[in-house]
Amino acid sequence: MKILPITFALLVFSISFGTFAHDGHDHQSIYASLVHLVWLAPIFVGLSFLYSRILKQLYKIDK
Question: How many domains does the chain have?
Answer without folding.
Answer: 1
